[in-house]
Amino acid sequence: MLSHVLILGGTGEARRLAAALAARPGIRVTTSLAGRVSRPGAL
């Protein structure tokens, strides 16, 4: 079964969490940025 996780991003911690979860089979990750980050890092 595919799980879908929404991460409210914008921090280094959220970016690391998204990367760790995306590496796991069966997990789909969506990261949402609030638009307050002028130059977001790669996800």
From TrEMBL:
<dbReference type="GO" id="GO:0016994">
    <property type="term" value="F:precorrin-6A reductase activity"/>
</dbReference>
<protein>
    <submittedName>
        <fullName>Cobalt-precorrin-6A reductase</fullName>
    </submittedName>
</protein>
<dbReference type="Pfam" id="PF02571">
    <property type="entry name" value="CbiJ"/>
</dbReference>
<dbReference type="GO" id="GO:0009236">
    <property type="term" value="P:cobalamin biosynthetic process"/>
</dbReference>
<dbReference type="InterPro" id="IPR003723">
    <property type="entry name" value="Precorrin-6x_reduct"/>
</dbReference>
